[in-house]
Amino acid sequence: MKMANYKATANYSVKLQTWRAYSVLGALLALFLLLIGRAAYLQGYKEDFLIKEGEQRFTRKLTLEANRGMITDRNGKALAISTPVQSITAFPSDMDDLSASQTAALASALDLAPEDVKRKLEDKRRDFVFLRRQMSPEAAERVMSLDIPGISKQTEYRRYYPAGEETAHIIGFTDIDNHGQEGFELTRDAMLVGKPGSREVIKDRNGFIVEDIASIEAPRDGQTLTLSIDSDLQHLAYSELKQSVEINKAKGGGIVVLDARTGEVLALANMPSYNPNNREKLDPDARRNRALTDAYEPGSTMKPFTVAEAIEQNKITPNSMIDTGNGRYVVGGYTTTDAHPHGNISVQQVIKYSSNVGAAKIQMMMSRESIWNLYNELGFGTQPHTGFPGETSGRLRAWKNWVPVDQATMSHGNGISVSLLQIARAYQIFATDGQERPISFQRLVAPLPGKQVIKPETAKEIRDMLQMVTEPGGTAPQARVVGYRVGGKTGTAYKPENGGYNFSRYVGSFVGVAPMSDPRVIVAVMIDEPSAGKHFGGDVAAPVFSKVVAGCMRMMGIPPDAPQNTGAEDTNVPAEKEEM
Amino acid sequence: MTRLNLLLLLVMIVCALGVVTSQHKARRAYIELQKAQAEAHRLEVEWGQLQLEQGTWGMHSRIDKEASSRLGMHVPDAAHVRVAPLKSGA
Questions:
Q1: Chain A partners of B52 at a C-beta cutoff of 8 Å?
Q2: Hey, which end of chain A has fewer CB within 10 Å, N or C?
Q3: What's the ipTM?
Q4: What is the block-wise mean pLDDT of chain A (580 residues), using blocks of 10 residues?
Q5: Cβ A314 vs Cβ A327: under 8 Å
Q6: Is B8 at the interface with chain A, CB within 8 A?
Q7: Domains delineated in chain A
C-alpha cells in the first residue's frame, strides 16, 4: 500500500514536469516568433516611415526668409524698406511661474505693464505666445540677457517708410505679417514678396550645422519697385497742398504732378494723410487716395476741351466773337448764368474770364455724339488703369441719354464727374501738341506711344488762351511763376448733394501746364470745401500751382522762358471772379 | 603573395587615413563657409539698416527744416536771381 502510493505519486510528478517543460518551451517559441514577426514588420512594412523618422532626429529643414523688395523713387531713394526686427516669444506651457521680480524685470525690458506680461503667461494651456512683436534688435537683446527660461526671440521683417505721410497714399502699407494692404504694397505684392528658400542640414548635438544633405534652395528676394515719383517734388507738392488746406480750412485736397512728355506721375498727394509707420490709429477716411478714388465735378476746368473741339470742327477760331449778352442763356428750360455779364467777347476771352454762357453756346454748336467721343477719348468715364487699387472711372453718361441741358452744363463741368488724375491726364493734349499718353506710376525708360486727340495747332491755340488766364484780368493771376510763362484753367464748382447742389460747399481747382514755350509738367490741384472765406479755384488752388511749379522748374533745371523782372508786383491786381 | 598582401594592406591604410583627413578638411571648410555666409547675411542686414538710415536722414522734409531753421537758408526770390543767357556765336 505504501509502495503503491509512492509509485503513484512519482508517476504523477513526472507527468506534470513534461507538461510544464512543453508549455515553457511553447511560450518561449511564441515570444521568439513574435520578435521575428515584429522585426519583419518593421523591416518590411514600416521601413520608409522609420527611415524618415530617424532622419528627422538629426536633419533639419531650415526656411530661408526672402527679403521684401524695396520701393524707391525715380532717383533710387528708398520710400519703403524692410529691415529685420526681433519678436519676443514665450512658451507658457513649458514655463515655471515667474517670481515677482522676474516679471517686473521682463516687463520693463519689454516696455510693457507687468500685469500684461503676467496675463499673457498665465494661461498654461497655450504652447506659444508673442510677448511683443517687432522690437529693435538692441531692445530684444536686453530682454534675452535676462536669461529667463522659456523666453526666446524670433527674427521678423518690418517695413519702414522714410517719407511717412508724404507718400502714404501712393505706397500704402503692409500688415504685421508683411502682406500689402493698400497702394502699391497691395497691387505689386506678388513682385515685392519674393520666394522663401530652404536648406536641409544635419545638425549635431550642440545645434551646429554639420553639413547640407540636399542642394540649397536659395531664397529669391523681392524685386525693387522703382516708381516714377520724385521724392523731392513729392515733398514740395505735399507740403504746399497741406498749407493751402490748412489756411483755407478745407475738408481735404489733392495734387497731381505729371511729366508732360512721358505721362509719368512725378508727385501725387492727398490731404488728409496718415503716417504709415504708425498704423495703430488709422482713420479709414484718411486712407483714401482721393486723387484716384474720388470723383468730383470739375467745373470750369472742362471749358478748354469744349473750345478745342469746336476749333477742331472748324466751328470757331480763337478770335471768333461769342455774344454772351446779359449773362443769361436758356437751354431746355435751364438757365446758364454768368454773375458778371461780359457782352460780346472773343473765344479767347471766354476762357480768360471763364464765361459759362460762352462755353455753353460753343458746346451747343456741336453734336452730342462728337462731344461724348471727345470726352471718351480723353479718358473720362473709364478707369485710368494705373495699377492702383480702387480707382474711379468717374461718371460720363451715354450720349443718347443726354438732353440739351446736359450738353450745355457739361461745358462748364457740371453733370460729369472725374478724378483729379483723369483731368490732369486729359490736359496732356494741351501740353504735348495734342497727344495723350497713358499714365504711369513706374519709371519709364522711354515714353509710351500717345494717341493724337487734337491737332498740334489747336493745342498751341489753347495754350495761348490758358496763359491769358494767368495774366492780369484773368481768373488766376496768382498762378503766375516769376520768370516763366505758365497757363492753366481755374474751376470752382458747387458740390452735388441729394440730386441737387449745395450752394455753400465748393470744390476749388486749378489745372495748368508749365512752361508754355515747351511744356514739361502738368499740375492739377483740387481743394475740397474750403471754408475760410475764399473758395474760388483762382484763390485757393492757383497759389499752390504757382509754388509747386516754381519748385519744379528749379529742381528740374528748366531755363526761364519769360523776360526777367516781369510782373511779381502786378500779381496784386485782383483776380477776375470766375463764373460758376 | 604575402608581400603583395602586405603592400595592399599598406595602400589601404594610407587610403583610409586619406579619407579621414579629407573628411576632416571638408568639415573645417564647411564651418568656414558657414561663418562667411553668416557674415554676408549680417552685412546685408546692416546694409539695409544703413539704407533706411540714409533714407530717413536724407528726406527732403528734414533737410528743408534743417536748412531753414538751423542754417537760416531760404530759396532766393526773383529779385536775387540773375539768368546768364548763353551768348550765341561766342
A1: 78, 81, 83, 160, 162
A2: N
A3: 0.71
A4: 52 68 93 94 88 80 82 88 84 75 83 82 77 81 81 82 88 85 87 85 73 78 90 91 92 92 92 83 79 89 92 89 86 83 88 90 90 91 84 87 86 89 92 89 86 90 91 87 89 82 86 91 92 86 93 88 54 60
A5: no
A6: no
A7: 54-86+161-227 (3.90.1310.10), 231-572 (3.40.710.10)
